[in-house]
Amino acid sequence: MAEQHTYKFNISMSCGGCSGAVDRVLKKLDGVESYEVSLEKQEAVVIAKPELTYETVLKTIKKTGKTVNSGEADGVGKSIEVAEAS
């Protein structure tokens, strides 16, 4: 069985509504094994199935309108730039 991925994102969230929005989109995302959104730490940690890509999780979080300040996949820093679909 393939390994799971651990994705960590630093997200600017100012209130419970902000963290709630991130929580809601992650809850609906296919391939998420588990996740934790922390308003206190300003981060979301996602444990993902192998087929769920970092980019997919990043795009999903960005759809909430929150600013993603940094991200990492399996302990390695990754870009937070999303290629815009034309």
- Give the amount of beta strand, in percent: 35-45%
What CATH first level would be assigned? Alpha Beta
User: Main sheet: which strands, in order across?
Assistant: 2-3-1-4-5
The H/E string reads EHEEHEE
> What's the CATH topology label?
Alpha-Beta Plaits
The whole-number mean of residue pLDDT values reads 93
Family: Belongs to the ATX1 family.
Keywords: Chaperone, Copper, Copper transport, Ion transport, Metal-binding, Transport
GO molecular function, one term: metal ion binding
GO cellular component, one term: cytosol
Task: Please summarize what this structure is.
Belongs to the ATX1 family. This protein has about 90 residues and is α+β, with helices and mostly antiparallel strands. It has helices at about 15-30, 55-60, and strands spanning about 5-10, 30-40, 45-50, 65-75, 75-80.
Question: How are the elements arranged and paired?
Answer:
Elements: E1 5-12, H1 16-28, E2 32-38, E3 43-48, H2 54-62, E4 67-73, E5 76-78
Antiparallel strand pairs: 1-3, 1-4, 2-3, 4-5
